[in-house]
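Possible regression after last week's pipeline update?

I re-ran a chain I had predicted before the update to compare outputs. Posting the input and the new output here so someone can diff against the archived version. Not blocking, just want to make sure nothing changed silently.
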Amino acid sequence: MSFQVFGLAISRGVAIGRAVLVASSRVDVAHYFIEPSRIESEVQRLGMARDAVAAELGGLQRDLPSDAPTELSALLDVHLMLLHDDTLAGATAQWIRDRHYNAEWALSAQLEVLARQFDEMENDYLRERKADLEQVVERLLRVLAQQQGHATPSPGVDARDFAGEDPLVLVANDIAPADMLQFKRSVFTGFVTDVGGKTSHTAIVARGLDIPAVVGAREASRIIRQDDWIVIDGDTGVVIIDPPPIVLEEYRFRQRQSELERARLTRLRRTPAVTLDGQRVELLANIELPGDAAAVLEAGAVGVGLFRSEFLFMNRRGDLPGEDEQYEAYRAVVKAMNGLPVTIRTVDIGADKPLDRMSTHELRHEHVLNPALGLRAIRWSLSEPSMFRQQLRAVLRASAHGPVRLLVPMLAHVSEIRGTLEALARARQQLRDAGREHAHVPLGAMIEVPAAALMIERFLDDFDFVSIGTNDLIQYTLAIDRADESVAHLYDPWHPAVLELIARTIRKTHARGKVASVCGEMAGDPAFTPTLLAMGLRSFSMQPAQISTVKQQVLRFDARKTLAAIEHPQAGSA
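New output (post-update):
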Protein backbone atom coordinates (compact mmCIF):
# COMPACT_ATOMS: atom_id res chain seq x y z
CA MET A 1 0.00 0.00 0.00
CA SER A 2 1.36 3.39 -0.98
CA PHE A 3 1.74 6.24 1.55
CA GLN A 4 2.81 9.86 1.33
CA VAL A 5 4.53 12.11 3.85
CA PHE A 6 5.14 15.82 3.41
CA GLY A 7 8.07 18.00 4.44
CA LEU A 8 10.24 20.88 3.27
CA ALA A 9 11.99 20.65 -0.09
CA ILE A 10 15.63 21.66 0.42
CA SER A 11 17.39 20.28 -2.66
CA ARG A 12 15.67 20.01 -6.02
CA GLY A 13 15.20 16.98 -8.21
CA VAL A 14 13.81 13.46 -7.85
CA ALA A 15 15.41 10.49 -6.07
CA ILE A 16 14.11 6.93 -6.30
CA GLY A 17 15.64 4.14 -4.26
CA ARG A 18 15.57 1.68 -1.38
CA ALA A 19 15.45 3.15 2.12
CA VAL A 20 18.46 2.92 4.41
CA LEU A 21 17.31 3.92 7.91
CA VAL A 22 19.55 5.64 10.44
CA ALA A 23 17.80 5.12 13.78
CA SER A 24 17.89 7.86 16.41
CA SER A 25 19.38 7.22 19.86
CA ARG A 26 19.86 9.12 23.07
CA VAL A 27 23.56 8.26 22.68
CA ASP A 28 25.54 9.97 19.92
CA VAL A 29 26.26 7.39 17.21
CA ALA A 30 28.74 7.61 14.37
CA HIS A 31 27.51 6.26 11.02
CA TYR A 32 29.95 5.09 8.39
CA PHE A 33 30.70 2.17 6.10
CA ILE A 34 33.61 -0.17 6.77
CA GLU A 35 36.06 -1.86 4.41
CA PRO A 36 35.19 -5.47 3.49
CA SER A 37 38.49 -6.56 5.03
CA ARG A 38 37.42 -5.13 8.40
CA ILE A 39 34.03 -6.84 8.66
CA GLU A 40 35.05 -9.67 10.97
CA SER A 41 37.12 -7.39 13.20
CA GLU A 42 34.07 -5.11 13.50
CA VAL A 43 31.93 -8.14 14.45
CA GLN A 44 34.55 -9.03 17.06
CA ARG A 45 34.45 -5.46 18.33
CA LEU A 46 30.72 -5.83 18.79
CA GLY A 47 31.25 -9.14 20.62
CA MET A 48 33.80 -7.57 22.96
CA ALA A 49 31.30 -4.82 23.80
CA ARG A 50 28.63 -7.44 24.51
CA ASP A 51 31.02 -9.34 26.82
CA ALA A 52 31.89 -6.13 28.65
CA VAL A 53 28.21 -5.26 29.18
CA ALA A 54 27.49 -8.83 30.33
CA ALA A 55 30.29 -8.54 32.89
CA GLU A 56 28.95 -5.16 33.98
CA LEU A 57 25.41 -6.50 34.45
CA GLY A 58 26.72 -9.59 36.21
CA GLY A 59 28.71 -7.43 38.59
CA LEU A 60 25.64 -5.34 39.35
CA GLN A 61 23.69 -8.50 40.08
CA ARG A 62 26.38 -9.89 42.42
CA ASP A 63 26.63 -6.59 44.30
CA LEU A 64 22.91 -6.35 45.03
CA PRO A 65 22.36 -6.10 48.82
CA SER A 66 20.62 -9.05 50.43
CA ASP A 67 17.55 -6.97 51.20
CA ALA A 68 17.19 -5.64 47.63
CA PRO A 69 13.79 -6.17 46.00
CA THR A 70 13.67 -9.37 43.93
CA GLU A 71 12.42 -7.27 41.00
CA LEU A 72 15.87 -5.70 40.62
CA SER A 73 17.56 -9.04 40.13
CA ALA A 74 14.81 -10.12 37.74
CA LEU A 75 15.26 -6.90 35.75
CA LEU A 76 18.99 -7.56 35.38
CA ASP A 77 18.15 -11.11 34.22
CA VAL A 78 15.91 -9.60 31.52
CA HIS A 79 18.72 -7.29 30.41
CA LEU A 80 21.18 -10.19 30.21
CA MET A 81 18.68 -12.25 28.24
CA LEU A 82 18.11 -9.41 25.77
CA LEU A 83 21.86 -8.85 25.47
CA HIS A 84 22.47 -12.43 24.33
CA ASP A 85 19.28 -12.89 22.33
CA ASP A 86 20.04 -13.68 18.71
CA THR A 87 17.49 -11.13 17.48
CA LEU A 88 19.85 -8.46 18.88
CA ALA A 89 23.33 -9.96 18.86
CA GLY A 90 23.11 -12.09 15.73
CA ALA A 91 21.00 -9.70 13.68
CA THR A 92 23.30 -6.78 14.53
CA ALA A 93 26.29 -8.74 13.30
CA GLN A 94 24.35 -9.44 10.11
CA TRP A 95 23.92 -5.69 9.48
CA ILE A 96 27.71 -5.40 9.65
CA ARG A 97 28.25 -8.29 7.26
CA ASP A 98 25.48 -7.47 4.77
CA ARG A 99 25.45 -3.66 4.77
CA HIS A 100 29.02 -2.88 5.90
CA TYR A 101 27.69 -0.67 8.72
CA ASN A 102 30.02 0.13 11.60
CA ALA A 103 29.01 -1.58 14.88
CA GLU A 104 27.26 1.48 16.33
CA TRP A 105 25.15 2.02 13.22
CA ALA A 106 24.31 -1.70 13.06
CA LEU A 107 23.10 -1.63 16.67
CA SER A 108 20.96 1.43 16.04
CA ALA A 109 19.47 -0.14 12.92
CA GLN A 110 18.53 -3.35 14.73
CA LEU A 111 17.13 -1.40 17.69
CA GLU A 112 14.83 0.41 15.27
CA VAL A 113 13.61 -2.92 13.83
CA LEU A 114 13.01 -4.50 17.25
CA ALA A 115 11.42 -1.37 18.72
CA ARG A 116 8.73 -1.49 16.04
CA GLN A 117 8.06 -5.14 16.84
CA PHE A 118 7.63 -4.31 20.53
CA ASP A 119 5.28 -1.42 19.67
CA GLU A 120 3.04 -3.81 17.71
CA MET A 121 2.71 -6.35 20.56
CA GLU A 122 -0.74 -6.63 22.15
CA ASN A 123 0.56 -7.77 25.57
CA ASP A 124 1.23 -4.72 27.76
CA TYR A 125 4.06 -6.40 29.70
CA LEU A 126 5.92 -7.42 26.55
CA ARG A 127 5.34 -4.02 24.93
CA GLU A 128 6.92 -2.32 27.93
CA ARG A 129 10.11 -4.38 27.51
CA LYS A 130 11.08 -2.00 24.70
CA ALA A 131 12.51 0.35 27.35
CA ASP A 132 14.73 -2.49 28.63
CA LEU A 133 15.95 -3.16 25.12
CA GLU A 134 16.81 0.53 24.65
CA GLN A 135 18.78 0.53 27.91
CA VAL A 136 20.78 -2.53 26.85
CA VAL A 137 21.60 -1.02 23.47
CA GLU A 138 22.68 2.24 25.09
CA ARG A 139 25.02 0.31 27.41
CA LEU A 140 26.52 -1.37 24.33
CA LEU A 141 26.91 1.96 22.52
CA ARG A 142 28.67 3.52 25.50
CA VAL A 143 31.12 0.61 25.74
CA LEU A 144 31.83 0.84 22.00
CA ALA A 145 32.51 4.57 22.39
CA GLN A 146 34.94 3.91 25.23
CA GLN A 147 36.87 1.12 23.50
CA GLN A 148 40.53 1.79 22.95
CA GLY A 149 41.55 2.00 19.31
CA HIS A 150 38.07 3.12 18.32
CA ALA A 151 37.38 2.28 14.69
CA THR A 152 37.39 5.23 12.30
CA PRO A 153 35.58 5.84 9.03
CA SER A 154 37.30 4.37 6.00
CA PRO A 155 37.77 6.75 3.07
CA GLY A 156 36.62 5.35 -0.21
CA VAL A 157 34.14 2.79 1.15
CA ASP A 158 31.20 2.96 -1.18
CA ALA A 159 27.67 1.75 -0.57
CA ARG A 160 27.73 0.47 -4.16
CA ASP A 161 30.30 -2.11 -3.02
CA PHE A 162 27.51 -4.14 -1.43
CA ALA A 163 24.20 -2.62 -2.52
CA GLY A 164 23.97 -4.23 -5.94
CA GLU A 165 22.28 -2.16 -8.61
CA ASP A 166 19.49 -0.69 -6.46
CA PRO A 167 19.92 3.01 -5.69
CA LEU A 168 19.84 3.92 -1.99
CA VAL A 169 18.19 6.80 -0.14
CA LEU A 170 18.86 7.80 3.46
CA VAL A 171 16.03 8.12 6.01
CA ALA A 172 16.53 9.39 9.58
CA ASN A 173 14.96 11.36 12.39
CA ASP A 174 17.87 13.76 11.95
CA ILE A 175 21.37 13.61 10.52
CA ALA A 176 24.26 15.43 12.15
CA PRO A 177 26.22 17.66 9.76
CA ALA A 178 29.37 15.67 10.49
CA ASP A 179 27.56 12.45 9.54
CA MET A 180 26.46 14.10 6.29
CA LEU A 181 30.15 14.57 5.48
CA GLN A 182 30.75 10.85 6.00
CA PHE A 183 27.89 10.10 3.61
CA LYS A 184 29.60 12.22 0.94
CA ARG A 185 31.77 9.17 0.29
CA SER A 186 28.83 6.93 -0.54
CA VAL A 187 26.16 6.80 -3.20
CA PHE A 188 22.95 7.85 -1.52
CA THR A 189 20.80 9.46 -4.19
CA GLY A 190 18.61 11.40 -1.74
CA PHE A 191 17.63 11.73 1.88
CA VAL A 192 14.66 12.38 4.18
CA THR A 193 14.61 13.52 7.82
CA ASP A 194 11.79 13.92 10.32
CA VAL A 195 13.09 17.27 11.60
CA GLY A 196 15.06 20.25 10.30
CA GLY A 197 14.65 23.48 8.40
CA LYS A 198 15.68 24.68 4.96
CA THR A 199 18.87 26.34 6.21
CA SER A 200 19.94 23.96 8.96
CA HIS A 201 23.55 22.99 8.41
CA THR A 202 22.54 19.43 7.64
CA ALA A 203 20.39 20.79 4.80
CA ILE A 204 23.26 23.01 3.60
CA VAL A 205 25.69 20.10 3.42
CA ALA A 206 23.07 17.95 1.66
CA ARG A 207 22.54 20.70 -0.90
CA GLY A 208 26.25 20.61 -1.51
CA LEU A 209 25.96 16.93 -2.38
CA ASP A 210 23.53 17.99 -5.13
CA ILE A 211 20.99 15.30 -4.27
CA PRO A 212 17.20 15.62 -3.78
CA ALA A 213 16.28 15.99 -0.12
CA VAL A 214 13.28 16.62 2.12
CA VAL A 215 13.48 17.64 5.79
CA GLY A 216 10.80 18.19 8.44
CA ALA A 217 8.83 15.15 7.22
CA ARG A 218 7.70 14.43 10.80
CA GLU A 219 7.06 10.67 11.11
CA ALA A 220 8.93 9.58 7.98
CA SER A 221 11.49 7.46 9.83
CA ARG A 222 8.68 5.67 11.71
CA ILE A 223 6.54 4.99 8.63
CA ILE A 224 9.34 4.00 6.24
CA ARG A 225 10.95 0.60 6.80
CA GLN A 226 14.35 -0.73 5.81
CA ASP A 227 14.50 -1.48 2.07
CA ASP A 228 11.14 0.13 1.22
CA TRP A 229 11.11 1.64 -2.26
CA ILE A 230 10.52 5.38 -1.91
CA VAL A 231 10.37 8.45 -4.12
CA ILE A 232 11.76 11.77 -2.85
CA ASP A 233 10.35 14.77 -4.68
CA GLY A 234 12.84 17.50 -3.84
CA ASP A 235 10.80 20.08 -5.76
CA THR A 236 7.59 19.81 -3.72
CA GLY A 237 8.72 18.19 -0.46
CA VAL A 238 6.66 15.02 -1.00
CA VAL A 239 7.94 11.54 -0.07
CA ILE A 240 6.07 8.55 -1.53
CA ILE A 241 6.49 5.11 0.08
CA ASP A 242 5.91 2.03 -2.11
CA PRO A 243 4.70 4.04 -5.13
CA PRO A 244 2.41 2.27 -7.64
CA PRO A 245 3.97 1.53 -11.07
CA ILE A 246 2.28 4.44 -12.89
CA VAL A 247 3.54 6.95 -10.29
CA LEU A 248 7.00 5.41 -10.37
CA GLU A 249 7.17 5.76 -14.15
CA GLU A 250 6.09 9.41 -13.99
CA TYR A 251 8.84 10.21 -11.49
CA ARG A 252 11.42 8.31 -13.51
CA PHE A 253 10.52 10.50 -16.49
CA ARG A 254 10.95 13.64 -14.34
CA GLN A 255 14.26 12.25 -13.09
CA ARG A 256 15.53 11.90 -16.67
CA GLN A 257 14.40 15.45 -17.51
CA SER A 258 16.23 16.79 -14.46
CA GLU A 259 19.42 14.96 -15.44
CA LEU A 260 19.24 16.45 -18.95
CA GLU A 261 18.86 19.96 -17.49
CA ARG A 262 21.87 19.44 -15.23
CA ALA A 263 23.94 18.21 -18.15
CA ARG A 264 22.98 21.33 -20.13
CA LEU A 265 24.04 23.60 -17.28
CA THR A 266 27.45 21.93 -16.99
CA ARG A 267 28.37 23.51 -20.33
CA LEU A 268 28.48 26.88 -18.54
CA ARG A 269 31.24 25.83 -16.16
CA ARG A 270 34.05 27.43 -18.14
CA THR A 271 32.02 30.47 -19.24
CA PRO A 272 33.05 33.69 -17.40
CA ALA A 273 30.30 35.09 -15.15
CA VAL A 274 29.63 38.42 -16.89
CA THR A 275 26.30 40.26 -17.11
CA LEU A 276 24.83 41.32 -20.46
CA ASP A 277 26.16 44.85 -19.92
CA GLY A 278 29.69 43.60 -19.24
CA GLN A 279 29.89 43.56 -15.43
CA ARG A 280 32.03 40.76 -14.06
CA VAL A 281 30.58 38.76 -11.15
CA GLU A 282 32.69 36.67 -8.78
CA LEU A 283 31.22 33.19 -8.19
CA LEU A 284 32.96 31.44 -5.30
CA ALA A 285 32.31 28.12 -3.55
CA ASN A 286 31.58 27.04 0.02
CA ILE A 287 33.38 23.92 1.30
CA GLU A 288 33.58 21.87 4.49
CA LEU A 289 36.69 19.70 4.09
CA PRO A 290 40.01 19.89 2.20
CA GLY A 291 38.90 17.16 -0.20
CA ASP A 292 36.11 19.43 -1.47
CA ALA A 293 38.59 21.60 -3.39
CA ALA A 294 38.38 19.34 -6.44
CA ALA A 295 34.62 19.95 -6.71
CA VAL A 296 35.25 23.72 -6.53
CA LEU A 297 37.54 23.64 -9.56
CA GLU A 298 35.26 21.25 -11.43
CA ALA A 299 32.30 23.61 -10.89
CA GLY A 300 34.19 26.52 -12.42
CA ALA A 301 34.33 28.64 -9.25
CA VAL A 302 36.99 31.36 -9.11
CA GLY A 303 37.94 30.56 -5.52
CA VAL A 304 36.69 29.42 -2.13
CA GLY A 305 34.48 32.05 -0.55
CA LEU A 306 33.84 30.07 2.64
CA PHE A 307 35.85 27.20 4.12
CA ARG A 308 33.82 26.09 7.15
CA SER A 309 36.74 25.12 9.38
CA GLU A 310 34.49 23.82 12.19
CA PHE A 311 34.08 20.49 10.40
CA LEU A 312 37.74 19.78 11.23
CA PHE A 313 36.72 20.00 14.91
CA MET A 314 33.67 17.71 14.85
CA ASN A 315 33.22 13.97 15.58
CA ARG A 316 36.53 13.87 17.52
CA ARG A 317 35.21 13.07 21.02
CA GLY A 318 36.67 16.27 22.44
CA ASP A 319 40.15 15.84 20.92
CA LEU A 320 40.44 19.14 19.04
CA PRO A 321 42.85 19.49 16.08
CA GLY A 322 46.13 21.17 16.94
CA GLU A 323 47.92 23.90 15.01
CA ASP A 324 49.94 21.56 12.79
CA GLU A 325 46.93 19.39 11.87
CA GLN A 326 44.92 22.49 10.94
CA TYR A 327 47.83 23.95 9.00
CA GLU A 328 48.11 20.80 6.91
CA ALA A 329 44.38 20.91 6.13
CA TYR A 330 44.41 24.59 5.16
CA ARG A 331 47.59 24.22 3.14
CA ALA A 332 46.07 21.29 1.23
CA VAL A 333 43.14 23.46 0.13
CA VAL A 334 45.34 26.46 -0.74
CA LYS A 335 47.68 24.34 -2.87
CA ALA A 336 44.80 22.48 -4.53
CA MET A 337 43.25 25.80 -5.62
CA ASN A 338 46.34 26.63 -7.72
CA GLY A 339 46.54 30.34 -6.92
CA LEU A 340 42.80 31.02 -6.59
CA PRO A 341 41.83 32.71 -3.29
CA VAL A 342 40.70 30.70 -0.27
CA THR A 343 38.60 32.32 2.46
CA ILE A 344 38.89 30.42 5.74
CA ARG A 345 36.27 31.12 8.40
CA THR A 346 37.36 30.71 12.01
CA VAL A 347 35.56 27.93 13.83
CA ASP A 348 31.79 28.46 13.97
CA ILE A 349 30.81 25.94 16.62
CA GLY A 350 27.46 26.01 18.38
CA ALA A 351 23.73 26.04 17.54
CA ASP A 352 23.15 23.03 15.22
CA LYS A 353 26.89 22.24 15.03
CA PRO A 354 27.85 21.28 18.60
CA LEU A 355 31.21 19.83 19.56
CA ASP A 356 31.50 16.63 21.57
CA ARG A 357 32.64 18.99 24.29
CA MET A 358 32.19 22.75 24.33
CA SER A 359 35.36 24.05 26.02
CA THR A 360 35.85 24.03 29.77
CA HIS A 361 32.21 24.97 30.24
CA GLU A 362 31.24 21.44 29.09
CA LEU A 363 28.37 22.89 27.07
CA ARG A 364 26.38 20.41 25.04
CA HIS A 365 23.73 21.28 22.47
CA GLU A 366 20.96 19.53 24.36
CA HIS A 367 21.85 21.23 27.66
CA VAL A 368 21.58 24.79 26.36
CA LEU A 369 18.14 26.37 26.44
CA ASN A 370 18.73 28.27 23.17
CA PRO A 371 22.05 27.28 21.57
CA ALA A 372 21.60 29.72 18.66
CA LEU A 373 21.92 32.55 21.19
CA GLY A 374 24.60 30.96 23.35
CA LEU A 375 28.37 30.53 23.37
CA ARG A 376 29.02 30.01 19.67
CA ALA A 377 31.26 31.18 16.81
CA ILE A 378 33.56 34.09 17.76
CA ARG A 379 32.18 34.08 21.30
CA TRP A 380 33.48 30.56 21.81
CA SER A 381 36.80 31.33 20.11
CA LEU A 382 37.43 34.33 22.36
CA SER A 383 36.57 32.22 25.41
CA GLU A 384 39.29 29.75 24.34
CA PRO A 385 42.23 32.08 23.57
CA SER A 386 44.85 29.33 23.26
CA MET A 387 42.73 27.35 20.78
CA PHE A 388 41.92 30.55 18.86
CA ARG A 389 45.57 31.55 18.49
CA GLN A 390 46.39 28.03 17.30
CA GLN A 391 43.84 28.36 14.54
CA LEU A 392 45.00 31.85 13.59
CA ARG A 393 48.63 30.71 13.41
CA ALA A 394 47.62 27.73 11.24
CA VAL A 395 45.72 30.00 8.82
CA LEU A 396 48.59 32.51 8.66
CA ARG A 397 51.11 29.74 7.96
CA ALA A 398 48.93 28.38 5.15
CA SER A 399 48.98 31.83 3.52
CA ALA A 400 52.62 31.24 2.58
CA HIS A 401 51.37 28.77 -0.06
CA GLY A 402 48.80 30.95 -1.84
CA PRO A 403 46.21 33.72 -1.39
CA VAL A 404 44.28 33.30 1.86
CA ARG A 405 41.58 35.47 3.40
CA LEU A 406 40.41 35.16 7.01
CA LEU A 407 36.73 35.47 7.92
CA VAL A 408 35.35 35.91 11.46
CA PRO A 409 31.76 34.74 12.23
CA MET A 410 28.98 36.29 14.32
CA LEU A 411 30.66 39.53 15.33
CA ALA A 412 28.29 41.99 17.01
CA HIS A 413 30.30 44.00 19.58
CA VAL A 414 33.25 46.38 19.32
CA SER A 415 34.86 44.39 22.15
CA GLU A 416 34.72 41.28 19.93
CA ILE A 417 36.40 43.18 17.09
CA ARG A 418 39.16 44.34 19.45
CA GLY A 419 39.59 40.83 20.87
CA THR A 420 39.89 39.38 17.37
CA LEU A 421 42.44 41.99 16.25
CA GLU A 422 44.50 41.47 19.39
CA ALA A 423 44.50 37.68 18.99
CA LEU A 424 45.53 38.03 15.33
CA ALA A 425 48.34 40.47 16.18
CA ARG A 426 49.63 38.15 18.86
CA ALA A 427 49.49 35.13 16.52
CA ARG A 428 51.48 37.06 13.90
CA GLN A 429 54.06 38.05 16.50
CA GLN A 430 54.41 34.46 17.69
CA LEU A 431 55.07 33.32 14.12
CA ARG A 432 57.65 36.08 13.61
CA ASP A 433 59.39 35.14 16.86
CA ALA A 434 59.47 31.48 15.75
CA GLY A 435 60.72 32.37 12.26
CA ARG A 436 57.64 30.83 10.63
CA GLU A 437 56.82 31.96 7.12
CA HIS A 438 53.48 33.66 6.52
CA ALA A 439 51.98 36.29 4.23
CA HIS A 440 49.52 39.16 4.51
CA VAL A 441 45.99 37.87 5.09
CA PRO A 442 43.01 40.20 4.41
CA LEU A 443 40.59 40.15 7.33
CA GLY A 444 36.82 39.91 6.84
CA ALA A 445 33.75 40.04 9.06
CA MET A 446 30.62 37.92 8.77
CA ILE A 447 27.52 40.11 8.80
CA GLU A 448 24.91 37.75 10.24
CA VAL A 449 23.64 39.63 13.29
CA PRO A 450 21.37 42.67 12.75
CA ALA A 451 23.61 44.69 15.10
CA ALA A 452 26.55 44.13 12.73
CA ALA A 453 24.52 45.21 9.69
CA LEU A 454 23.37 48.36 11.47
CA MET A 455 26.90 49.33 12.53
CA ILE A 456 28.55 48.25 9.28
CA GLU A 457 30.50 51.51 8.92
CA ARG A 458 32.26 50.86 12.24
CA PHE A 459 33.13 47.35 11.08
CA LEU A 460 34.63 48.71 7.87
CA ASP A 461 37.16 50.72 9.91
CA ASP A 462 38.90 47.45 10.83
CA PHE A 463 37.97 44.90 8.16
CA ASP A 464 39.10 44.58 4.55
CA PHE A 465 35.88 42.91 3.34
CA VAL A 466 32.55 41.62 4.63
CA SER A 467 30.57 38.47 3.88
CA ILE A 468 26.85 38.43 4.55
CA GLY A 469 25.69 35.19 6.16
CA THR A 470 22.05 35.35 5.15
CA ASN A 471 21.02 32.15 6.97
CA ASP A 472 21.75 33.55 10.41
CA LEU A 473 20.89 37.12 9.44
CA ILE A 474 17.34 36.00 8.60
CA GLN A 475 17.19 33.85 11.75
CA TYR A 476 18.20 36.67 14.09
CA THR A 477 16.27 39.42 12.29
CA LEU A 478 12.99 37.47 12.38
CA ALA A 479 13.59 35.60 15.68
CA ILE A 480 13.19 32.23 13.89
CA ASP A 481 15.17 29.11 14.82
CA ARG A 482 16.19 28.04 11.33
CA ALA A 483 16.55 24.39 12.35
CA ASP A 484 13.01 24.16 13.77
CA GLU A 485 10.44 22.92 11.26
CA SER A 486 7.56 24.09 13.49
CA VAL A 487 8.37 27.72 12.63
CA ALA A 488 9.79 27.09 9.18
CA HIS A 489 6.86 28.86 7.53
CA LEU A 490 7.98 32.09 9.24
CA TYR A 491 11.53 31.89 7.88
CA ASP A 492 11.25 34.43 5.07
CA PRO A 493 14.28 35.55 3.03
CA TRP A 494 12.00 38.01 1.18
CA HIS A 495 11.02 39.85 4.36
CA PRO A 496 11.49 43.61 3.77
CA ALA A 497 13.60 43.98 6.92
CA VAL A 498 16.00 41.28 5.74
CA LEU A 499 16.32 42.77 2.25
CA GLU A 500 16.90 46.25 3.71
CA LEU A 501 19.74 45.00 5.94
CA ILE A 502 21.39 43.20 3.00
CA ALA A 503 21.02 46.18 0.63
CA ARG A 504 22.31 48.58 3.28
CA THR A 505 25.37 46.42 3.98
CA ILE A 506 26.23 46.17 0.27
CA ARG A 507 25.70 49.89 -0.32
CA LYS A 508 27.76 51.06 2.68
CA THR A 509 30.59 48.60 1.95
CA HIS A 510 30.91 49.63 -1.69
CA ALA A 511 30.87 53.30 -0.67
CA ARG A 512 34.06 52.60 1.29
CA GLY A 513 35.67 50.92 -1.72
CA LYS A 514 35.55 47.45 -0.14
CA VAL A 515 34.05 44.13 -1.23
CA ALA A 516 30.78 42.70 0.06
CA SER A 517 29.93 39.08 -0.59
CA VAL A 518 26.96 36.87 0.26
CA CYS A 519 27.86 33.36 1.44
CA GLY A 520 24.50 32.20 2.82
CA GLU A 521 21.95 30.06 1.04
CA MET A 522 20.47 33.08 -0.76
CA ALA A 523 23.68 33.26 -2.79
CA GLY A 524 23.02 29.83 -4.30
CA ASP A 525 19.30 30.28 -4.91
CA PRO A 526 18.74 31.48 -8.51
CA ALA A 527 15.43 33.07 -7.46
CA PHE A 528 17.43 35.68 -5.52
CA THR A 529 20.22 36.25 -8.05
CA PRO A 530 18.58 39.15 -9.96
CA THR A 531 17.60 40.90 -6.71
CA LEU A 532 21.10 40.64 -5.24
CA LEU A 533 22.65 41.81 -8.52
CA ALA A 534 20.26 44.76 -8.58
CA MET A 535 21.42 45.63 -5.05
CA GLY A 536 24.95 45.88 -6.46
CA LEU A 537 26.29 42.55 -5.23
CA ARG A 538 29.14 41.28 -7.41
CA SER A 539 30.50 38.47 -5.21
CA PHE A 540 28.52 35.30 -4.44
CA SER A 541 29.68 32.20 -2.56
CA MET A 542 27.65 28.97 -2.62
CA GLN A 543 27.82 25.19 -2.76
CA PRO A 544 29.76 24.08 -5.88
CA ALA A 545 26.70 22.29 -7.27
CA GLN A 546 24.76 25.57 -7.38
CA ILE A 547 27.25 27.61 -9.40
CA SER A 548 26.06 26.73 -12.91
CA THR A 549 22.43 27.59 -12.12
CA VAL A 550 23.37 30.95 -10.60
CA LYS A 551 25.76 31.67 -13.47
CA GLN A 552 22.91 31.21 -15.92
CA GLN A 553 21.02 33.98 -14.10
CA VAL A 554 24.09 36.24 -14.14
CA LEU A 555 24.55 35.79 -17.90
CA ARG A 556 20.91 36.87 -18.47
CA PHE A 557 21.11 39.97 -16.23
CA ASP A 558 21.45 43.50 -17.62
CA ALA A 559 22.26 45.97 -14.83
CA ARG A 560 21.57 49.05 -16.97
CA LYS A 561 18.07 47.93 -17.97
CA THR A 562 17.26 46.88 -14.41
CA LEU A 563 18.36 50.20 -12.93
CA ALA A 564 16.50 52.11 -15.63
CA ALA A 565 13.33 50.16 -14.85
CA ILE A 566 13.74 50.91 -11.13
CA GLU A 567 14.36 54.64 -11.72
CA HIS A 568 11.63 55.01 -14.40
CA PRO A 569 8.97 52.39 -13.63
CA GLN A 570 6.39 53.98 -15.95
CA ALA A 571 8.72 53.73 -18.95
CA GLY A 572 9.44 50.11 -18.12
CA SER A 573 5.74 49.23 -18.13
CA ALA A 574 4.83 51.16 -21.30
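Follow-up from reviewer: compared with the archived run. The first strand starts at residue 3 and ends at 6. Marking as no regression found.
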